[in-house]
Design brief:
This protein has 140 residues and is of the alpha/beta class. It has one domain: 2-Layer Sandwich (Transcription Regulator spoIIAA), CATH 3.30.750.24. A 5-stranded mixed β-sheet has the order 1-2-3-4-5, with helices on both faces. Helix 2 packs parallel to helix 3 and helix 3 crosses helix 4. The longest helix has 16 residues. It is globular. This is STAS/SEC14 domain-containing protein.
Length: 140
């Protein structure tokens, strides 16, 4: 049996994972790289929320570009990210597209959106992801 120190169980860790979030017209772009821990995922969510709250468009779409095979979300962050996407939908997001590199990423994304009504697509090419999003954007 493994016993953990109680202080270790409540310890906050340094955020892992890199993110860049910015607007291109009515598409919010999130570029992610490296592996994330829950703290890194929360930093990324907060960056996106700050931009969404100050947006100048009513309806928008979300393009999430996963940088490489190692760009992964840990299981303990799934709930927070699911809640974030539900909030995005309430804030006018009409669709989410991911650029992916492997089946592990695909599995994680499927878990995020399994109970969501927000349309989500996973594509290998950014151009295809942008085209898919543009077809689902509500006219401004």
């Amino acid at each position: 049996m493994i016993i953990q120190n109680q202080s270790d169980m409540n310890q906050a860790w340094e955020p892992h994972g890199d993110s860049r979030v910015y607007w291109e017209k009515n598409i919010l772009i999130m570029e992610l790289s490296d592996g994330f821990n829950i703290e890194g995922a929360l930093v990324c969510i907060n960056k996106a929320k700050a931009l969404i709250e100050t947006r100048e468009v009513l309806y928008w779409a979300f393009l999430i570009k996963l940088g490489n095979d190692d760009t992964l979300l840990p299981p303990d962050a799934l709930h927070d990210v699911e809640q974030f996407f539900a909030w995005c939908q309430r804030e006018g997001c009409s669709a989410v597209a991911y650029t992916i590199h492997n089946t592990v990423q695909q599995y994680i994304i499927n878990q995020l959106f399994k109970d969501s009504e927000l349309p989500c697509e996973q594509l290998k090419q950014e151009a295809a992801a942008r085209e898919w999003l543009n077809e689902r954007l509500i006219p401004i």
